[in-house]
Specification:
Strand content: 5-15%
Distance between the termini: 44 Å
Largest sheet: 6 strands, mixed
Bound molecules: S-adenosylmethionine
Shape: globular
Strand order of the largest sheet: 3-2-1-4-5-6
Radius of gyration: 18 Å
CATH superfamily: Vaccinia Virus protein VP39
Structural class: alpha/beta
Number of strands: 6
Length: 277
Amino acid sequence: VENDGNLPEDEQEYAFDISRPSIARVYDATLGGKDNFAVDREGAAMIAKYVPKIREASQDNRLGLAKGVRYVARQGIDQFLDIGAGLPTMQNTHQVAQAVNPNAKVCYVDNDPIVLSHGRALLADDESTVIATADLRDPPSILGHPDVRKAIDFDRPVGLMVVGLMMHFHPAENPGQWIGALLDACPSGSYLHITDFANTGFPEQEAMEKSCIQALGNGWMRTPEEIEAHFQGLPLVAPGIEYPTRWFPEEPDRELIPVEDLEEHQRIIMMGVARKP
Ligand code: SAM
């Protein structure tokens, strides 16, 4: 549904603007998905000019998503609140979580209405999966959403996910406050899982930032310290903030590929997981 401003109120949540690229659709285009428009494919092509392996970089973020979800599910978490869910693709959060625990529930949240319409179409029969339109920058819109409240029992530990969106798409605002409000609603034993654009001094990271700002108007990289700050002081699961290819919390003795030997697209994203004591 194209949003021409004249839609009845009850259809507004499904309306989306196809005159400008959206993060969700450009990301879908970089992953080779079909839920995007010409304007989004142009955005993805612009990014690819600077980051030729943008598809692999997006896949690397998905690796960070899957590794974090699998780890958190193995710690016994059976309900996930996935904020900035994105469009359905391969290895979605519920598929990864349910491979560990078939009873796991996932509540997807995104502020882009296309995620709701496409997500509902794909997941309509799945009672263990819910999708809601709400915004990270407005935690009460998430915590007070009737579908979120129905899906997530905030008296039991939650797997809170802010994967592939938090800082890098929100520059001058205050992600710490939003995360703090969400964490306050989650009981002890909950987990927080974040991935973000990394800034550790490699030129491909700068290329990613430059291309995203050109294509989308945002997409800032952050140092590992800046990423860690968004965990609000929660103790990070070892190995802390790390590239997805090198993040093996359950294998502390594993021999890792040295950072200098990683491929460029494996140094765009860093991830971390923390547990609320
Ligand atoms: N989490 C998925 C992943 O990592 O593969 C999708 C990441 S995609 C790059 C970022 C998603 O975050 C998009 O679907 C976008 O619509 C959503 N998003 C951006 N800002 C948001 C906000 N303030 N609140 C909720 N969702 C947001």
